[in-house]
């Protein structure tokens, strides 16, 4: 049985939850807001904007990358540093991806869908990958 500690306000039929904790999963059919107060949901919300090479920490989720100045390389940790199924999203917000790529490099000899790197090569492009939690990454979406 879940233990809930919550407070809410109902305004014009909309329930606003100020705090909620549970010892088990909580689900909802809809969510409204920017998610800035959520924790433990696939990592941090938006991390960035990165303008230089960086390591992709296991706490990252959505990373914004500003490529207006140069190519930016995102270096992944070993796949087993991430949870199995953990999503990592990379987004070019600089609008220069066609000339200054976002390069995503796996650790050592690990791969992303059998490739040794993955590039965002279109302006304002984005890519989503997941870790298998062991030794590789898979592309799950490209925009």
Please summarize what this structure is.
By secondary structure, this protein is mainly beta. It has strands spanning 7-11, 14-19, 46-50, 54-56, 62-65, 72-76, 87-92, 102-105, 111-112, 118-120, 126-131, 136-142. The protein has a single domain, classed as Sandwich (Jelly Rolls), CATH 2.60.120.
Mean pLDDT: 81
The DSSP helix count reads 0
Helical content stands at under 10%
Instruction: Give the CATH topology.
Output: Jelly Rolls
Uncertain segments: 1-8, 38-44
% residues in beta strands = 35-45%
Class derived from helix and strand content? mainly beta
CATH architecture: Sandwich
- Count of distinct strands: 12
Major sheet characteristics: 6 strands, mixed
Strand order of the largest sheet: 3-5-7-11-12-9
Question: What general form does the structure show?
Answer: globular
What is the string of SSEs from the N terminus onward? EEEEEEEEEEEE
| Distance between the first and last residues' Cα | 41 Å
Describe the protein's topology.
Layout (H helix, E strand, L loop, with lengths): L6 E5 L2 E6 L26 E5 L3 E3 L5 E4 L6 E5 L10 E6 L9 E4 L5 E2 L5 E3 L5 E6 L4 E7 L1
Parallel strand pairs: 3-5, 4-6, 5-7, 6-8, 9-12
Antiparallel strand pairs: 1-2, 7-11, 8-10, 11-12
